[in-house]
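Per reviewer request, we include the raw input and output of the structure prediction for the construct analysed in the revised manuscript.
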Amino acid sequence: MAVTVRVPTPLRSFTNGAEEVNIEGNTIQEVVDNLEANHSGIKERLCGEDGKIRRFLNVYINDEDIRFLENQETPVKDGDTVSIVPAIAGG
């Protein structure tokens, strides 16, 4: 199943400047793995050594935060949009 992944500006160097890429996968984990297969080096920026998505990144499927679903095991379906959004801190 192909999903559209929205890539934040700091990670676009891995996607040759593309703000969106189409990636195959049935779960967020498969999407991340296939994103790495197509855009080498990006997974290291998305995931820690434990393989889990870094705390300061928010990942959404069609506006739903995966932390309130099944995290990286959250299923995706053809045509979904996955957004990677870096957390912003300050005050």
